[in-house]
Design goal:
The complex is a heterodimer of chains A (about 210) and B (about 300). Chain A is mostly helical. Chain A is about 75% helix and about 0% strand. With about 300 residues, chain B is α+β, with helices and mostly antiparallel strands. Chain B is about 20% helix and about 20% strand. Chain B is built from nine helices and twelve strands. Chain B has helices spanning about 15-30, 30-40, 55, 70-75, 100-105, 135-140, 180, 235-240, 285; strands at about 85-90, 95-100, 110-115, 120-130, 150-155, 175, 185-190, 195, 205-210, 220-225, 260-265, 275. In chain B, the strands form two sheets. In chain B, strands 3, 4, 7, 8, 9, 11 and 12 form a seven-stranded mixed sheet that branches. In chain B, strand 3 (about 110-115) and strand 4 form a beta hairpin. The chains are: A mainly alpha (about 210), B alpha+beta (about 300). The interface between A and B is medium-sized, with 30 and 30 residues. Bound molecules: protoporphyrin IX containing FE (HEM). Protoporphyrin IX containing FE (HEM) binds near residues 45, 91 and 125 of chain A.
Chain lengths: ~210, ~300
């Protein structure tokens, strides 16, 4: 039995719900670190950045699920919805820290969204993720039908791409990190254009529709 | 000549907190005009508490040690600051390599409590110890043809983990117009709170120009050059549109990627509110005349 099959068998017994729990606990923990002065003397910007970075990391993980299955046979599809919703939670937290703790006024919020391209595209990514989060449940899949639901959830691609560009755009100088994330996102999106290999190991048919 | 300028953030602000509170209540009793008189006619007396040494020395931009705000505090201890030599060259009467002690000898180190405004829209209040740059310039003898002063930061690749990453080009260079450099507000600082300059804050000696964004206040200087042409400056070279040569604090001229109208005072915690940014960082009465007739939107 190869590694992929063994992994798939092992994860079959692991439920997806702890992902939500871990995500929420992590977000709460970071907030607590900020409140208690453990994120340095300027906790608002620190928290804003921590939430943004986790959001991007989890979104990259979401994008990796399908290529991982196609190219290695390892299937983490059952965790994907939980990961996607968790990523949205971090984007929402990121946005709220920015709006409520950082800018503190509607006039400033509106002004920045209109005037600053890196905020505009981050906000665009956030807007795209909202319908995806709302329809991340079986009832929505049934209501929309698999095909329409899959089409809608292709919005993940531009959203994550915009998120990564947002990161590249906001830094000063030329640090490597944002370019590595952007590179990873482009790579994971490009893999979807490569003709598919047959999955090495098939898992049991999925209960949920899956967007590639 | 020392003591040409008096603190507008009053020196009582650095006395122990209990005492300071008492002073403040007293002052409140006498009235705001008394506070203004105490400040010696400078812009405004603000009952602003300086940031703690801990805050000042744990939230820094010093890219030679990394881009994180906590990187300088984590890595700067490796910086070798003793011995320290500063090369003075260009249009000066007495060029040469000066030891730190030589450069400072005979000059009065005084305390200046200045607002410090970063281009990233955060700010602190720092009780610097230093000498007026003008006094050092007089010591080396500026020739009449000189128009600008250029500065260079040390590069110690083996001690500075950020240098290899080349996030920005090193050595870091900055510059001032000669009249800006000679302004009594402009310091060469060697300490904070009466203690030697922390390495992450630019030990052993750095520039402080309180009416300009923080990146103009170059750290750990090893070269001072007098020239007749505007010297290149690091951030300006990297992105001309975002970082001008002047970079005076100006709430009306936004950074292309973020607003400069307001700022966050460091140290207020997670629910602290923003405050309005002051023109010339509150030093307009002293420095606005340097820019008479200049379009500050053009010369950002
Ligand atoms: C999919 C959506 C988004 C993603 C993936 C994302 C990701 C990120 C990342 C990775 C960072 C940098 C973290 C670091 O420096 O370590 C960041 C910073 C930031 N983001 Fe977002 N972001 C998103 C949406 C938004 C939105 C909607 C806003 C506001 C409207 C926003 C505002 C900011 C701000 C203000 C910063 C900090 C800039 C600074 O510190 O100077 N982002 N974001």
């Amino acid at each position: 039995m190869d590694i992929a099959q063994r992994l798939n068998r092992a994860t079959r017994r692991v439920p997806a719900w702890p992902v939500y729990l871990i995500g929420a606990a992590w977000a709460g923990w970071l907030f607590w670190l900020g409140v208690s002065g453990q994120l340095g003397p300027e906790p608002i910007n620190a928290l804003e950045r921590r939430y943004g970075l986790v959001a991007l990391q989890v979104l990259v993980a979401v994008l990796a699920v399908t290529p991982l299955r196609v190219w290695t046979g390892i299937s983490l599809i059952k965790f994907r919805r939980a990961l996607g919703v968790t990523a949205f939670g971090f984007v929402l937290a990121h946005f709220l820290v920015w709006a409520v703790l950082d800018l503190q006024s509607l006039a400033r919020i509106g002004g920045e969204i209109v005037k600053r391209p890196y905020i505009t595209i981050g906000f665009g990514a956030f807007l795209m993720l909202i319908p995806l989060a709302i329809t991340s449940n079986n009832a929505s899949i049934r209501k929309l039908g698999g095909a329409a639901w899959r089409r809608l959830h292709k919005l993940t691609y531009p959203a994550v791409l915009l998120g990564a560009i947002h990161f590249v755009w906001l830094v000063k100088g030329y640090p490597m990190e944002p370019f590595l994330y952007l590179g990873a996102v482009i790579f994971l999106l490009a893999l979807r254009l490569v003709p598919k290999r047959k999955p090495v190991a098939r898992t049991a048919p999925q209960a949920t529709a899956t967007a590639r | 000549m020392a003591y040409r300028w008096k603190n507008d953030l009053s020196p009582t602000d650095v006395t122990p907190k209990g005492l300071w509170l008492n002073r403040r209540q007293l002052m409140a009793g006498v009235g705001g005009t008394a506070a203004l008189a105490m400040a010696g006619g400078s812009a405004r007396a603000q009952a602003l508490e300086p940031n703690t040494l801990e805050q000042i020395s744990t939230y820094n931009n010093y890219y030679e040690f990394g881009t994180g705000k906590d990187d300088p505090a984590a890595y700067a201890s490796a910086l070798v600051t003793d011995p320290w030599a500063i090369t003075v060259d260009g249009m000066v009467d007495r060029p040469g390599e000066y030891s730190l002690a030589d450069l400072m000898s005979g000059l009065t180190v005084e305390e200046r409590i200045y607002r410090f405004r970063c281009v990233e829209a955060w700010s602190m209040v720092v009780p610097w110890n230093g000498v007026e740059l003008a006094d050092v310039l007089d010591k080396v003898g500026v020739q009449s043809s000189a128009r600008y002063v250029a500065f260079e930061t040390v590069v110690q690749p083996e001690n500075m983990p950020g240098v290899a990453r080349q996030v920005i080009p090193f050595p870091y260079v900055e510059g001032l117009r000669l009249d800006e450099a000679r302004h009594p507000l402009t310091l060469l600082a060697t300490g904070i709170y009466g203690q030697p300059m922390p390495k992450q804050n630019g030990a052993p000696i750095r520039v402080v120009v309180p009416w300009k964004y923080g990146f103009k206040s170059i750290k750990s200087i090893v070269r001072i050059t007098l020239t007749d042409t505007q010297p290149p400056t690091t951030w300006n070279r990297l992105n001309r549109r975002e970082y001008g040569f002047y970079s005076n604090v100006n709430p009306e001229v936004d950074h292309p990627r973020w607003s400069q109208a307001s700022e966050r005072r460091i140290g207020g915690g997670i629910f602290s509110s923003r405050q309005d940014t002051l023109m010339f960082n509150g030093y307009g009465d002293q420095v606005a005349s340097l820019y008479d007739g200049m379009d500050l939107q053009e010369n950002y």
